[in-house]
């Protein structure tokens, strides 16, 4: 048993596309399911290791124009009644329409929990619509591309607390359960998990870098003996834990699987597993082996984490066996700057997963990286800042026409994304964008996090 998510919104915003993506191959079974009306489709969804029921209000497409409003309202209300949580979808390319506002009104009145999604979010054409979505008064929108599968991690993160709440409810209402995990835990040693949303981290790196050893150390040996959480599948292996009072969910790659004795496949699977873990993480810990740091595979996964917009912390493991620590650290920092310039300012922490040295600092670096990744700068601050930047170093004038930068706003966080309204956005040289990005990093203290900057023309 799990929670139910209803996807609602006006026709053509992409509800069915998301439904199909969540339900996947099982779709064929869905239509035959007894009890499912023609208007509401129901399916079993999976997202990472979450399993839930999803309802799609797809029947609306057949509605004729004059009957649309009434039908839409009834259908939406029915879906809302059936669901634990609603995903309200708008089309970011179209922006907020009057019909969207009617929906928002219904949802504000009827639904206890609404997740706002701005779909068709791929590309700069969606920037303005994503910003507009805030005006619906339903909180921060998730930028989605149902068609391309972008933003699924953000959706996952927003669904986690729903699942937690639901699980708790299920436990409370079921007097006798077989769940022993909590009773088994050593009462003294394991801090009580709080209700806060766990921070999602992934530990990635080459085979033998020490990923399992590190995770063991973090969660405590005896907890590991109980194995990964129930319901863990081949797709996503995650463990809930509390590390120094911080609730965390750790996505493991090859490590856990090795313990699960599928040893022969470990080498082959580790890269694609790493990619999957990166997608679900908020902070990615790239674990290097001090003896062979920055190998091709390490660079690839670190670059991927940056491109996926994750906060990155680099941890150099097996530091206990290094002799010339000072020299080595200098070399590592130099190599880091040279080989991964896109991660400028990201923390580099030396650790020993074996002895536990440096883990405290790793923990703190993760929290700081997460904080930066979530940072929001107000529009007023940004524009004051932009004026100063323009004075200090005016934008170029290709073919004698100066590019005008008019206005700037932060469109999103996680990672921070900014939009600059300007003339001739296509003529803006990369060097000037870099000047602005580096300035943002410095002046708003955002080291290490990927920063996205979009130039947009007016109108
Ligand atoms: P529904 O009526 O809300 O269920 O919308 P559909 O899922 O049928 O999608 C409507 C149209 O939008 C289809 O042509 C989809 O291919 C397209 N679409 C859905 N999601 C996306 C997206 O993320 N990006 C873009 N560009 N198009 C999308
Ligand atoms: P994984 O493949 O990344 O999960 O790596 P493992 O955790 O299985 O570790 C690979 C090997 O490195 C094992 O023999 C570990 O004992 C060893 N190892 C892991 N961490 C450390 C460390 O901090 N110091 C030393 N000296 N050895 C370590």
TrEMBL record:
Give the residue ranges for region: Disordered: 171-194
Which top-level group of life is the source organism from? Bacteria
Tell me which UniProt keywords the record has, alphabetically. Answer: GTP-binding, Hydrolase, Nucleotide-binding, Repeat, Ribosome biogenesis
Give the binding site residues for GTP 1: 9-16, 56-60, 119-122
A Pfam short name? MMR_HSR1
| Acidic residues: bias regions | 173-187
Transmembrane parts of this sequence: none
Q: Where does GTP 2 bind?
A: 205-212, 252-256, 317-320
Tell me which residues make up the EngA-type G domain: 3-167, 199-374
Q: Which GO terms describe its molecular function?
A: hydrolase activity
**InterPro entries named in the record:** G_ENGA, GTP-bd, GTPase_Der, KH_dom-like, KH_dom-like_a/b, P-loop_NTPase, Small_GTP-bd
Q: Member of which family? A: Belongs to the TRAFAC class TrmE-Era-EngA-EngB-Septin-like GTPase superfamily. EngA (Der) GTPase family.
Tell me which PANTHER family the record gives: GTPASE DER
According to the record's subunit comment, the protein's assembly and interactions are: Associates with the 50S ribosomal subunit.
What is the designated name of this protein? GTPase Der
Organism, as annotated: Cognatishimia coralii
